[in-house]
Specification:
The protein is about 45% helix and about 15% strand. By secondary structure, the chain is of the alpha/beta class. The longest helix is centred in the middle third of the chain and has 18 residues. It starts with 15 loop residues before the first strand and ends with a helix.
C-alpha cells in the first residue's frame, strides 16, 4: 500500500475519533476524576463531535483494591449510567479490558443491558489467544470490539505477522497499532501501519492508532497513520496520559477538516478543567526523561520514578538506561 488516503483539505468518512482522557489520563491520577469533570467531558465530547469516549478500565476487583483507585478503574454500569443515562446521543461509549486483569465473563454485561458500545481489549503478543477469547465473548454479547497489541516496538516481524493473522481471522472489528513506549518515528509508523492495513484489507478490518508522546511525536505519528489509511484515532484532552501522555485532542480536531468536529468545545473544557488539574499538581507530558526512554525503546516507568524523585541528572539517567538496554 503506497498511496496516501485523502488529503490535507479533504474529509474521510471512515475516520473515527476516540477520546481516551479518562482511561489513559486515569493512569496519572489513579482515576480520581470528579463526577463534574466526567460529566463535562462527556458533554464536551458530544459538542465536539467526537465519535467514542473511553470511560476507563473493566479491571478485576479481586486483583485491584477498589479502595486504592477511583471508580473508573472498574467502570461499573451504574457509574457510567450516572453520567450518560441511556446515552441517546451520537457519541459511543467504550471501556478497556486488559488480558488477565479482568473478570470479563461477569463484569461485561450483555450489550442490551449496558450503556457501553465498544469493548477494547489490551494484549501483549504472548497473550493473543486469551485476547481472542475475550473478543469473541464481547462480540457474542453484542459489542463492537478492538484489539490493542501493546509494546509492538519490542516484537519481531515474524511474531507480529502471526498475531495479526490470528486477529484477522477473529471477529474483531478494529486492530490497533500501539506505540507503547513512544519510540517510533513517522517513517517507521508508515511501514508498520502498512503491515496492519494489508491484514485489514485481507480480512475486512479497520485499523486504529494509539500513540504516546515521549519524543513529541504522538500527533505526528497519528496523522502519519491517518494518511496511510488508519481510521480510528485515539487522543486525550491536553495529551493527558501516563508519563509523556498521548496525542493532543486539541491538535487532532484542529487538523481534521470534517465540519462535524468542533475544537472549541474541547478548548472550553481545557480552560475549565485541565488547567486546574495541572495547578493541583497532577503531572504528565513531555519531559527529557521520557525522551530518553523513548529513543531507547524502554518502558516509561523509570522516567516516571525519575521525575517523581525530582531528579535532574539527565546524563546519569541516560547511562542507567543504557546499562539496562545493552
Amino acid at each position: 500500500m503506497s498511496n496516501r488516503q485523502g488529503s490535507l483539505v479533504s474529509v474521510r468518512q471512515d475516520v473515527r475519533v476516540v477520546d481516551c482522557t479518562m482511561r489513559d489520563g486515569g493512569l496519572v491520577n489513579n482515576f480520581a476524576f470528579t463526577d463534574e469533570f466526567v460529566k463535562d467531558l462527556y458533554l464536551a465530547n458530544i459538542k465536539a463531535g467526537v465519535d467514542y469516549m473511553e470511560f476507563g478500565y473493566k479491571a478485576s476487583k479481586e486483583i485491584f483494591d477498589p479502595k486504592k483507585f477511583g471508580k473508573w478503574k472498574f467502570s461499573d454500569e451504574k457509574d457510567i449510567r450516572s453520567i450518560v443515562g441511556d446515552n441517546k446521543t451520537d457519541l459511543k461509549i467504550s471501556v478497556m479490558a486488559d488480558v488477565g486483569r479482568t473478570d470479563f465473563r461477569q463484569s461485561i454485561l450483555n450489550r442490551k443491558d449496558s450503556a457501553i458500545d465498544m469493548i477494547r481489549v489490551a494484549t501483549y503478543i504472548n497473550t493473543i489467544p486469551a485476547c481472542i477469547e475475550m473478543l469473541e465473548d464481547a462480540k457474542k454479547k453484542g459489542y463492537e470490539t478492538t484489539a490493542n497489541i501493546m509494546a509492538v516496538s519490542k516484537v519481531n516481524d515474524g511474531e507480529l505477522e502471526i498475531a495479526l493473522d490470528m486477529l484477522g481471522q477473529s471477529s474483531v472489528d478494529v486492530i490497533y497499532v500501539v506505540d507503547s513506549f513512544g519510540s517510533f518515528y513517522p517513517e517507521q509508523m508508515e511501514r508498520l501501519c502498512d503491515k496492519y492495513l494489508n491484514v485489514a484489507v485481507k480480512y475486512n478490518k479497520k485499523i486504529g492508532i494509539h500513540a504516546h508522546n515521549n519524543q513529541q511525536l504522538a500527533f505526528a505519528n497519528t496523522i502519519e497513520a491517518l494518511s496511510r489509511g488508519v481510521s480510528y484515532l485515539d487522543a486525550t484532552v491536553s495529551g493527558m496520559g501516563r508519563g509523556a501522555g498521548n496525542c493532543y485532542m486539541e491538535s487532532l480536531l484542529c487538523f481534521l477538516k470534517n465540519p462535524k468536529y468542533n475544537k472549541l468545545a474541547v478548548m472550553n473544557f481545557v480552560e475549565k478543567h485541565m488547567l486546574k488539574l495541572r495547578e493541583e499538581g497532577v503531572v504528565w507530558g513531555y519531559d527529557i526523561p521520557y525522551l530518553l526512554t523513548g529513543i531507547l525503546n524502554s518502558h516509561p516507568s523509570s522516567a516516571i520514578q525519575f521525575i517523581k524523585e525530582k531528579r535532574t541528572d539527565y546524563s546519569m539517567f541516560y547511562q542507567e538506561l543504557m546499562d539496562n538496554v545493552l
